[in-house]
Design goal:
It contains three helices and no strands. It is mostly helical. The chain has one domain. It is elongated, with a radius of gyration of 18 Å.
């Protein structure tokens, strides 16, 4: 887990929990949205962009900029 050295458990636990719910809910929400808005995929893709931007903010706020394996890399 090289993304963060301070929040590994929190990052993996929350991430996996959200991913479990999302894999179940997203197809249902997309089907409902397409039915309500007349098969227009524009709103679906706009929501995906917003969700990805929120994910980027969360990952950037929890990630560390220091490499965990600095000692190994200094040997080379």
């Amino acid at each position: 887990m090289d993304i963060t050295n301070l929040y590994q458990g929190l990052f993996m636990g929350v991430g996996n929990t959200i991913a479990s719910f999302v894999t179940f809910l997203v197809p249902i929400v997309v089907a409902y949205t397409l039915r309500e808005y007349g098969d227009d995929w524009t709103i679906v893709f706009q929501c995906l962009v917003v969700c990805n931007l929120i994910g980027v903010v969360v990952v950037m706020s929890l990630s560390s900029v220091r490499r965990i394996d600095d000692a190994i890399m200094q040997a080379y």
